């Protein structure tokens, strides 16, 4: 009895490996034995010239079976008709089957529907021509699991020839995680390339800004001399003043470029946002124009923050200009500041700039703080105002975020750390300074999430609840100051909450359907609800 080895794997049916008792195990066993031996041969697992302790054919075949089953990759042997002759346990696991369930199935059942026709032609060609194909020789290969889900694979192929026809032996490897890592590496390389490009642009901008500042120094100096020489009623005096005003605005632009390029350092000192807004309010009203109703609201006793007053004013102006451009037909603009006690991240002051514009699409909102990103048309506006905002706020140790949605307006939230040693906010006797707790009860999950995000960034402690599950609201909350809801929630739940928290303020945002609940502060707003209206209603409740 000969030993199984490379020399007799391509033998005819009569020369297949047989058990020790020389009895014929039957066609199926002969096929499987040959396939396993061929799989081992294709992987160079056995060499006839090597002397091993596994000298008998049966023992060698058993070793081949163990190696086939223990292979770390999925092993699949496919006959000439396209059916699976044999598959190991790893192959079954990869495709979502139990061990042995793949045997006899058409190979096409493991191929995505969109690739079946192309794959069948490639299989027939490979079976006819033979040869080998290593892992990674092709890209974007996918396997189809039993539940119809797809996963990325690498496949190596080889062939063995029997009397019944050729057999294709495939080693299948799940490369889903590897593909994810490769995608992350590509993204990191792209970000690095982008960062280097931005750094180069920043250096260029800084160089241009410095040279431009030198020219502006001469221009502004000469216009100052002309203003001194010209009498108040001189016909040319308004023209000279316009030149000086344009020069000062050009200085503001170069200052933004230098801040973005990190070539102009911030000189922070303890300031109150209320003082900055008071100084800037007159200019803000000129900037936003008469079509926009401006409201400036500052909490009494606001804490100090460490900031450069001029640059903090520039942050406010940039956000106001951005809001005005979002409301070409007019609207409302709220600029507010409030204290935010926070034992975890540290006390802070929150600056809010909210508008009633059309809102920002999610894809745009993700990039809105990127340098040189703009949605403006050619020749409309100059400079990178929102990139400058982020640059200044970051240098001050703060964060800036935007909460928005199509048709909902936008709320920009700037959080700045409280200055060390800043005096505490004065509070009423018997009332401790703390975050107000707001419960948002809305039936629409997306709207509920958006409202909660805007309120949280504004400094409130927020709890979300579905209007269909409000019965649990009283048991889940330890305290509630304001309930933001809609007209459909005005019955037992509100009454139960009012009994537990008598000072509960009720903010009803939506179409009115009746009188307000007695004993609670109620603010009615009409649909659609904009984020500025939400913040204003909660603050005024």
Q: pLDDT under 50 segments (min length 5)?
A: 1-31, 41-51, 378-383, 424-433, 511-527
Number of helices: 14
Largest sheet entry: 6 strands, antiparallel
Given helix and strand content, the structural type is alpha/beta
Number of strands: 18
Query: What's the rounded overall pLDDT mean?
Result: 75
**What share of the residues does DSSP label as strand, in percent?**
15-25%
Shape: elongated
Termini separation (Å)?
96 Å
Radius of gyration: 37 Å
What is the helix fraction of residues, given as a range?
25-40%
Polypeptide structure, described:
- By secondary structure, this protein is an alpha/beta fold.
- Helices cover 39% and strands 21% of the residues.
- The protein is built from 14 helices and 18 strands.
- It has helices spanning 27-42, 57-70, 89-94, 116-129, 176-229, 237-260, 273-288, 309-325, 362-365, 385-395, 445-457, 473-476, 492-500, 531-540; strands at 74-78, 84-87, 132-133, 141-144, 150-162, 165-174, 269-272, 292-298, 304-307, 331-340, 348-355, 399-404, 410-417, 437-442, 461-466, 482-485, 505-509, 521-525.
- The strands form 4 sheets. Strands 1, 2, 3, 4, 5 and 6 form a 6-stranded antiparallel beta sheet that branches.
- A hairpin with a 5-residue loop joins strand 12 and strand 13.
- Helix 1 (27-42) crosses helix 2 (57-70), helix 6 (237-260) packs across helix 10 and helix 8 (309-325) packs antiparallel against helix 10 (385-395).
- 34% of the residues are buried.
- The model is unreliable at 1-31, 41-51, 378-383, 424-433 and 511-527 (pLDDT under 50).
């Amino acid at each position: 009895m000969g030993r199984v080895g490379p020399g007799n794997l391509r033998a005819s049916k009569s020369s297949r490996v047989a058990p020790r008792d020389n009895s014929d195990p039957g066609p199926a066993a002969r096929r499987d034995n040959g396939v396993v031996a061929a799989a081992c041969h294709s992987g160079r697992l056995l060499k006839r010239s090597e002397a091993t302790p596994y000298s008998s054919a049966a023992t060698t075949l058993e070793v081949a079976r163990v190696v086939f089953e223990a292979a770390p990759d999925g092993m699949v042997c496919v006959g000439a008709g396209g059916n699976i002759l044999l598959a190991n346990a790893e192959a079954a696991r990869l495709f979502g089957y139990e061990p042995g369930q793949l045997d006899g199935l058409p190979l096409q059942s493991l191929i995505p529907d969109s690739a079946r026709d192309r794959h069948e032609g490639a299989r027939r060609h490979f079976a006819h021509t033979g040869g080998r194909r290593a892992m990674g020789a092709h890209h974007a290969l996918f396997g189809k699991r039993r539940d119809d889900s797809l996963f990325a694979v690498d496949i190596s192929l080889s062939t063995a020839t029997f009397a019944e026809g050729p057999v294709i032996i495939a080693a299948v490897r799940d490369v889903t995680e590897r593909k994810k890592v490769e995608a992350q590496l590509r993204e990191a390389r792209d970000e690095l390339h982008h960062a280097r490009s931005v750094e180069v642009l920043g250096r260029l901008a800084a160089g241009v800004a410095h040279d431009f500042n030198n020219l502006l120094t001469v221009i502004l100096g000469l216009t100052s001399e002309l203003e001194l020489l010209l009498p108040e009623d001189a016909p040319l005096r308004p023209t000279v003043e316009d030149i000086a005003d344009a020069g000062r605005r050009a200085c503001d632009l170069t200052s933004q470029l230098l801040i973005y390029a990190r070539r102009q350092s911030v000189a922070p000192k303890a300031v109150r946002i209320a003082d900055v807004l008071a100084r800037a309010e007159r200019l803000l009203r000129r900037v936003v124009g008469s079509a926009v109703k401006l409201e400036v609201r500052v909490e009494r006793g606001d804490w100090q923050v460490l900031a450069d007053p001029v640059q903090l004013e520039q942050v406010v102006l940039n956000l106001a200009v951005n809001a005005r451009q979002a409301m070409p037909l007019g609207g409302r603009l709220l600029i507010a500041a409030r204290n935010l006690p926070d034992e975890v991240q540290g006390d802070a002051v929150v600056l809010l700039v909210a508008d009633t514009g059309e809102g920002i699409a999610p894809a745009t909102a993700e990039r809105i703080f990127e340098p040189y990103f703009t949605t403006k048309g050619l020749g409309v506006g100059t400079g990178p105002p929102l990139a400058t905002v982020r640059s200044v706020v970051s240098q001050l140790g703060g964060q800036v975020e935007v909460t928005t949605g199509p048709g909902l307006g936008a709320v920009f939230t700037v959080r700045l750390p409280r200055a060390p040693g800043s005096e505490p906010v004065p509070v009423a006797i018997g009332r401790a300074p703390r975050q107000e707790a707001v419960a948002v009860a809305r039936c629409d999950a997306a709207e509920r999430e958006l409202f909660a995000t805007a309120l949280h960034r504004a400094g409130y402690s927020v709890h979300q609840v579905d209007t269909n599950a409000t019965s649990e609201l009283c048991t889940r909350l330890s305290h509630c100051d304001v309930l933001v809801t809609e007209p459909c929630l005005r019955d037992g739940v509100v009454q139960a909450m009012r009994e537990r928290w008598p000072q509960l303020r009720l903010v009803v945002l939506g179409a009115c359907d009746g009188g307000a609940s007695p004993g609670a502060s109620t603010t009615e707003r009409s649909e659609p609800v904009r984020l500025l209206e939400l913040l204003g209603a909660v603050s005024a409740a």
